[in-house]
Amino acid sequence: xxxxxxxxxxxxxxxxxxxxxxxxxxxxxxxxxxxxxxxxxxxxxxxxxxxxxxxxxxxxxxxxxxxxxxxxxxxxxxxxxxxxxxxxxxxxxxxxxxxxxxxxxxxxxxxxxxxxxxxxxxxxxxxxxxxxxxxxxxxxxxxxxxxxxxxxxxxxxxxxxxxxxxxxxxxxxxxxxxxxxxxxxxxxxxxxxxxxxxxxxxxxxxxxxxxxxxxxxxxx
Length: 220
What we know:
Shape: elongated
Radius of gyration: 39 Å
Strand content: under 5%
Distance between the termini: 118 Å
Largest sheet: none
Mean pLDDT: 81
Low-confidence stretches: 181-220
Structural class: mainly alpha
Number of strands: 0
Order of helices and strands: HHHHHHHHH
Number of helices: 9
């Protein structure tokens, strides 16, 4: 009945998944909500008042009062073939109070998974990830799966597009500092030198040649 969703919920799920992998079946398979809660308390032990308040649910105190009293089960008896390190990790994940469970960073440093721990390849997201799936709408398992996969594919395509754009920009030729022409000259409608080659323009080669010929004719 709690509406407070924290990372502690995910860590509890990790403990349940680890237990199921070791046992080969769900470890808290109850026939009802209360029966499942009884099975959980057999492993975690009855919570203190502080632990109950940490659940942040108005129904928690009443539900705890309705739970049956029973002996606590030992993880060594439930998982006789599990290693000491596996049991220790599970014990620190399956804690009733969410705030007292291992964090993700602490769990990754646990000896049981030490051989897989690579801090250089385990970045932490600086923001809360919110899936665009409404919590107020109940979907089938297949609908949840399809929507989640569609979101993953959309993000993947967006990342690939960004990578392609970066690669294209990296391999694009650098723009010339002298404009589009080769040789650095400024090309205008009057020619590559910027001077007019029309006859009579004494600043052009042909203009200078014509002027020289006229001068020679006057001397003759």
